[in-house]
Amino acid sequence: MTHARDFAKGILFVATLAFQTSTIASATSLAPPAGYSSSQLIFEDQFTSATLDTTKWNPWMGTDNYGRWGDLGLLPNPYSAVSNCANNNCLTASFYNLEYEDLYSYGYSTSTAGIHLTGSGHLAEFCNPSSRFSSFGYSWACSTITTYSHAYLPATGGYVQWHAKMPDSRYGAWAGLWMLDPNSSNEIDIQESGYLLGSTSPNQVMAMNVHTSGNFQQHVDTGVDLSAAYHTYGIQYLPGKSIKMYLDGNLMTTFTSSIPSVQYGLIISNTMANSNASGWHTVADPVNHPGPFEYDIDDVQIYSGMPSTTTDTTPPSAPTGLATTMVTPVEVDLAWTASTDPDSAVAGYKIFRNGAQIGTSATPSYADTSVVANTSYGYQAEAYDPTGNTSAASLTLNVTTPNFALGAAVNTATNTPIKARAGRGQTACIQPAGVNGTISSGLQTVGGAVWWFVEFVSGCSGWAQQSNLTLN
């Protein structure tokens, strides 16, 4: 969460998995994840005390090589920050956060901007507006805890799981479950709340990343409101081989490119996104939505070593029947026949465009929303299993996007209903075939059909379905 974001997004649609939810903090310890036993448990905190256990956690943002992140020394002890907002530059292009980290009242007696870190039964991190360090550019106070110098996911591998309830992230809250190595050079994001994914509620989205070469941020529509109840988030770390992310025991995604072999400290942070994040994340609105935004965690566990599973070396079958289900100037939707695996279920698919991986999908379909008009692309898909075995690539599908775009000259190819609203409402008129016009707005996709607003030279103007138009 501290690095510049990789905006090449893979989209996973997960709508049929069984998620385990609870609206209240759990009084019992999490069960070991699949393949691990209690004898491999090397760290756990259920936050049962009224003060933070400082033999396990630091009540501020920090790492081994820097210690407490105090914004280049401007923030006095014990305050910290994820971004450096020195000289009032929180809104410069290189920063995305608005907050400093406040730790009252979890074991600390001085309140400067209200409660931000509390305990006893569960950990609660809060965000709300604050002017205490406004001279440095901070306009919110939140909280973060870290395990550096206390506990690590070992460099030899293991598993970490958190039982957590996300904050309502529709208004800028940016909760994180993430990890950094001691040198702050390798970052893993297990969950970052508040990311945008089409029309999906931000509270349903998981955003995951391994910040090494060849990887990119993965977005998952979980189909459940992650702010309404507790869920178990997990990461399996096989150094040099793979990193797998889980939600309630369900595999969300797998990373296999440039996997490091280093130890990682844990970070649990609640932060706020500024307007620089607009377009890919919700942003803070302190006037209409001042919070507080509460982020709850009631159990954190670290397991060491490898899972006790049978080695699987057989890859799935190659995907077949790769075809388009929709092609517009700005989107190519793909589908294919599902692959099979003799040893396990297929975990997902990697999608390639012009030889480079652009995303993954848990189902045999993918929407590429990063294309441009009037351009040719070659697509392939590969299947992978839970062990990381990858199939041969599918046959290449060549696609050329149409040149429909704002300002394009078009004409009606047939009698065309013109709508006041894209795809719905009353028909304003029927334009006969051969009427010229210019696209002035759009596109909008309604019911799988693409619509453009066309200013016609005669008759009425309005929304016309792309399939009824031809380019002049």
List keywords for this structure.
472 residues, 16-stranded mixed sheet, 3 domains, Jelly Rolls, mainly beta, globular, disordered N terminus, 32 strands, Immunoglobulin-like, SH3 type barrels, 5-stranded antiparallel sheet
Task: Tell me what you see in this structure.
The protein has 472 residues and is an all-beta fold. The chain has 3 domains: 10-304, Jelly Rolls (Sandwich); 320-400, Immunoglobulins (Immunoglobulin-like, Sandwich), CATH 2.60.40.10; 409-471, SH3 type barrels, CATH 2.30.30. The chain is 0% helix and 41% strand. It has a 16-stranded mixed β-sheet that branches. Strand 15 (242-247) and strand 16 form a beta hairpin. Mean pLDDT is 88; it is low at 2-20.
Assess the beta-strand content as a share of residues: 35-45%
Q: What is the terminal-to-terminal distance?
A: 47 Å
Overall pLDDT metric: 88
Structural class, from secondary structure content?
mainly beta
CATH topology value of the largest domain: Jelly Rolls
Rg, nearest Å: 25 Å
Tell me the major beta sheet: 16 strands, mixed
Number of continuous helical runs? 0
- How many domains make up the coordinates? 3
CATH class of the largest domain: Mainly Beta
CATH architecture of the largest domain: Sandwich
Question: What does this entry show, briefly?
Answer:
The chain has 472 residues and is mostly beta strands. It has no helices and 32 strands.
